[in-house]
Amino acid sequence: MTKFLDLYSLPPLLQTLQLVADPITFLDRCARRFGDTFSTRVLGWNSPPVVFFSAPAAIAEIFTTQADCLALGRVTHPFRPLVGELSLIMQEGKPHQRQRQLLMPSLHGDRMKFYGSTICTLTRTEIAHWQPGMALSIRPIVSAISLQVILRVVFGLAPGQRYEHLKQHLSELLEAITAPLYSSQFFFPQLQCNLGRWSPWGRFLDKREQIDRLIAAEIGDRRQCSEMTRGDVLELLLTAQDESGEAMSDTELRDQLMTLLLLGHETTASALTWAFYWIHQQPPVEARLRQELEQAETPEAIAQLPWLDAVCKETLRIYPIALIAQPRVVRKPVQIEGRLYKPGEVLVPCIYTAHRRAATYPNPDQFRPERFLQKKMSPYEFFPFGGGSRSCIGAAFSLYEMKLVLATILQTYRLAPAHTTPVRPMRRGITFVPSDNFRLRVVA
Ligand code: HEM
Fold first, then answer.
1. In this structure, what are the phi and psi dihedrals at residue 381, rounded to the nearest 5 degrees?
2. Measured from the CB, is residue 256 less than 6 Å from ligand 1?
3. 89 lies in which domain range?
4. What are 237-294's pLDDT values in tens digits?
5. Within-domain flag for 175
6. What is the number of domains present in the chain?
7. Helix (H/G/I), strand (E/B), else coil: 240
8. What is the CATH number of the domain that holds 271?
9. Burial 389-417 (b: 16+ CB within 10 A, else e)
10. Residue 424 has what DSSP assignment?
């Protein structure tokens, strides 16, 4: 039976504050002290037991075998004003499955070949002005690339006025929601009062309206267009039908586009920032990568490179962009690893602690991509994209994008670390990124 201890000795509010203030330290401490499974009270005063899991057997049970006894928590609900009522992440049960079926094909398999050259071209354009000696803050650069990838590949926008306007409005909105004060209004509905353009909520509504108008115009134009030859995600969604032959409405399309933008932009940019950090922390990792990249020119060849694949996976292991997968609320009594959990308790598949588990990953604090070449990890040992019925639908797409952006930049320039103080993980919106002092210098 799994070793099980809990933290009830600490008052619930203190546990909550510790988790909110510094989740990585909180999780590290709990895992060190209590092992693979630990129970907390991190939902405020009257918190039910919130149990974190990291052992592969327990994760497998939560994601698959016991899924019927568990309901998904409503953690995504604060995003409702951004992504809309009809967004995939607001749906449950059958409607959720239907939308996943409609969206998935556009982000998988052969479709990706259509996006490869656009990703590489956008990256080349964004970095064309770099000069030897320049010090670069990587996060805003890869963030700009990833936003444009979404606009071109997902929204299918051609460069022009609408593209530029949407880019500007969206980057302003996405930047604003990473600020703690601005983002708190999504979590506390009491703050959602429109006191005109000078109030934070008024500003948000105003920006959203401008964005919605641009998206509606694009959807309108695309519906008029009889030829569907562009191959972007919006085109696929316009033509997609579920099993009963039903297509998406304009509102549904808008909501899905905003969802893909919200969940696909910052996440991929954060992962890329970490990849640049780790590659340039470890000269042998970089040297092997550069050697491998010499043999690959096309996007398809780049996507197949084993060391690049291992580097991306190790990046997502050591600091997973989301620390946890969606919490599950127990609906019917359920046994996991021989222990009984009662209705109302909350079960959390903890990506961070699972990825730092020494039994799965020896020397877990070290960045060692070779571990992914030596052993094929199961989806319960390595799950940066979550698992089960709500796993990330952009997993294949974001890995593909990461590889192409990394390869394009490394094939064009040599970079070296330029920060003078240690880089630490820092919260940014819903992700953790290298702290703002992280810099690389263009060497050649
Ligand atoms: C490195 C990049 C990314 C990471 C680390 C990541 C991670 C995640 C995680 C952990 C979840 C929750 C899974 C769960 O609870 O089991 C998720 C859900 C989701 N992700 Fe991603 N993601 C990334 C990129 C993307 C991209 C590029 C897109 C789309 C273009 C995307 C779209 C979504 C959507 C729509 C969901 C919700 C799925 C549902 O509720 O059914 N993600 N992602």
1. -100, -35
2. no
3. 48-442
4. 898 887 788 888 999 999 999 999 989 999 999 999 999 999 999 999 999 999 999 9
5. yes
6. 1
7. coil
8. 1.10.630.10
9. ebebbbbbbbbbbbbbbbbbbbeebebee
10. -
Q: Collapsing DSSP states into helix, strand and coil, what is residue 45?
A: coil
The reported pTM is: 0.94
In a domain, 37, yes or no: no
Distance 395 CA to ligand 1 centre (A): 7
One-letter identity of residue 86: L
Strand, helix or coil for residue 68: helix
Burial of 246 (0-12, 13-18, 19+ CB in 10 A): exposed
In a domain, 316, yes or no: yes
Residue to probe by mutation, ligand 1, list 155, 385, 399, 406, most atoms within 8 Å of CB: 385
Q: Is residue 13 part of a domain?
A: no
Neighbours of 139 (CB within 10 A): 23
Sequential DSSP letters for 170-226: HHHHHHHTTSHHHHHHHH-GGG-----TTSHHHHHHHHHHHHHHHHHHHHHHHHH--
pLDDT over 70 (residue 116): yes
| Whole-number Å distance between alpha carbons of 392 and 365 | 25
Q: Is 322 in the pocket of ligand 1 (CB under 6 A)?
A: yes
CA of 393 from ligand 1 middle (Å) equals: 6
Distance CA 435, CA 17 (A): 21
Tokens (6 digits) for 223: 């519906």
- Dmax (CA) of the chain: 65
